[in-house]
Amino acid sequence: MECGEKGHICQRTCHPLSSNVHGKVKCSHTVPFPCPRGDHTLTRECREDPAEIPCKADRKIVCIRCQQLVTGRCFLTDERLMQSCPSKMSFSCGSCRSALQRKCWEEESAVKCTKLIEWGCKACGTKRRRQCHQPESACESLVPFRCMKGGHQGKKRCSSTEQPQCDAPCCAPLACGHPCQGRKCFQDCVSPKDCAQCKEIQKAEAKARRELEKEVRQKVKQNLEAELKVLESHEGGGISLVEGNEAKREEVCLLLKEKSVSSEWSFRLDNVWTVLNRPAERLFIDTKLHLKQPQQPNTYLFASVPSLQEAKSLSLAALPSEEASAPSHDSDRQTPYRFLSGQIDLETHKSSGLFKEQDGRKSAFLVVFEAAVGNVKIMEPLSRREFARKDLVEKRWAFGLRHDSLVWLGAQAGSASERPGESLRSADNSKDARRDVFVLKREPQAMPRYIVEVSRQANPASGFGVPPYWTRSTAVAPTGDGGRRSDTFRGFHLIPVKESDKAVRKALQSALDATPSGFLGKGRDQMVGGRYSRLELACAWRIENRRRWQIFDAERQTVRENCAAVNRTAEGVFRPADINANLVEACKSLPCASTLRQREANEFLLWHGTKKEVLLSLLQQGLNERFNKAAAFGPGTYFAEDAGKSDQYVSAHSSFDPSGAEETILYKECGQKKPEGDVFYIFLCRVLMGVFVSGNSSAFTNQNELQFIPETSPPLRHHCLLAGGGGGFRYREIIQPHGSRIYAEYLIAYQRR
């Protein structure tokens, strides 16, 4: 055979040598060989490898752990043989100290202690059992819990960290004060606008309002009819002018001051004539009886005329005969519309040349009408050219929709006798249109009451007017019913800062950037945290609130006088405020910069953070210091020279409700689109710092007023407190204890980046 062993011969039958059979057949002779691990003799076939044949004889070794003899198969390694050592060793459990046994070769950690031990849940105290080697499992005991939303009692697993679903009926109070109904506690509450009780109350109130309105309308009509009978009982009725007495002059003067919208000029009342026109008065009352809403109070409107003669002609015009003068109340009749102004703008009179030389002085004439506006439709503000292109078709269409008169907010118009296009071509050409134009459906709706002669005088410091850059003098609120009611006045108007107003937007963004980026998002006062390094301008609105401005302007004059008095009696006490130079520089590009009284009254633009929920209240009523009495530096309204400080007190406007009041007024009415993501709101306010004091809450007295200014007689109090800065404070704060010294100039919506 090929194995070469002696005596190993081929065991097959004889075959030819030419075939290579021996190379293919392995040798199968039995061959003995010694065991490599002991003295045993093993056998194998010649073709097999000795290393692959295990020795199955028994052999004994000494266990190196317990020194006992261990018997096992010879082919096993010593380590494997020792693992079959039957010896037992005792040890104590590391947890319960119980006596345990392990095999010689086992580790102590491999032996599981099966002793039952008792343990208590740390949360609920329930006693449980487990084997010693088992970990403490989650407690499955049911424990009572209280629903965080509605306070309902229920049960949950002790180990559960999540609030379980409460299936009790929801009774949480809504923003309107009524309990939520028709929902489970785990579900979101209904929106306040969907509150069933509110809807029922609104229906009842609407019904009561309609009934009351109907009753008032009936009473007004009865009074008007009685008044008309009294007038008709007088034979004839004259048409004349009566020069006004001192009481009448004072009454008319107050009326004109209230309606003035000029800030650079004030007027002097020279002459007043009362118009007595019985035929026109009878026609006026008869016309008011047929208005859609005769119960609406009358208002005073104005017409500018170049001379006294034209004023008399307009006021004392001969009326048609009684038969022809009966007004037609058919809305399709083409009646002569009358265009009158709701305000007086002396700057318009100056630019249009209405001030004429009269007896050595320049004077102008106004005709004051008492107008029965009835049901007013508020039209969209129009520019001069847009207003000139409007024809009477749209106006007649609006009159057909149950309206007695129209008003264009901030439109420009000239004399009462002209059509809109003609008056605009001949009158004011200034860039700001600031007067409201009323269009009366019937000419008898306006009854001439007075002719006044006024002369103008420069008064740049203060007055009854508004800033020259304003575009509205009053703000009329839409009613949501297509403008069919005119008795809802909002009191403020928002002028959106559009994308085209690049200079203003750049100035506002620079003012926001005046805060060091490293301070943003830090501080214990931070209400809404996050990582960001910039406040980015999203939208902005300039605020026009005539009532708040008049209060502020009057107080500004008082502060200026106080500062001047302090300068005279206590030199060095009145000093300029070192407000953030970056903020002051950025605000120089704003339209209001030229009207700030920094030198005379320390008037600066400062920041005040706010929330969406109180926006409309602040826009209408202004900032009120009475809501903040427990602050760090004392009572008052808090302002900052760095927007980052005011950013600590804002809350996010996340969800967008198209029917919400804030969304409607800020975005829908102003043609603004709400940015995606969270939006925050901040006011940029005019603040009168006047004679300020630096310190903390100790500067306040027990009456929530600041201390007296030294060396002043009679004593004057400090106007403002400047607190913080240094000593661990990142920002300084300005505390103003009087809301009359604050005027919100801009509302800014920004995002954190």
From TrEMBL:
<protein>
    <recommendedName>
        <fullName>Poly [ADP-ribose] polymerase</fullName>
        <ecNumber>2.4.2.-</ecNumber>
    </recommendedName>
</protein>
<keyword id="KW-0328">Glycosyltransferase</keyword>
<dbReference type="GO" id="GO:0005634">
    <property type="term" value="C:nucleus"/>
</dbReference>
<keyword id="KW-0175">Coiled coil</keyword>
<dbReference type="GO" id="GO:1990404">
    <property type="term" value="F:NAD+-protein mono-ADP-ribosyltransferase activity"/>
</dbReference>
<dbReference type="InterPro" id="IPR012317">
    <property type="entry name" value="Poly(ADP-ribose)pol_cat_dom"/>
</dbReference>
<keyword id="KW-0520">NAD</keyword>
<keyword id="KW-0808">Transferase</keyword>
<dbReference type="InterPro" id="IPR051712">
    <property type="entry name" value="ARTD-AVP"/>
</dbReference>
<dbReference type="Pfam" id="PF00644">
    <property type="entry name" value="PARP"/>
</dbReference>
<dbReference type="GO" id="GO:0003950">
    <property type="term" value="F:NAD+ poly-ADP-ribosyltransferase activity"/>
</dbReference>
<feature type="coiled-coil region">
    <location>
        <begin position="198"/>
        <end position="229"/>
    </location>
</feature>
<feature type="domain" description="PARP catalytic">
    <location>
        <begin position="495"/>
        <end position="753"/>
    </location>
</feature>
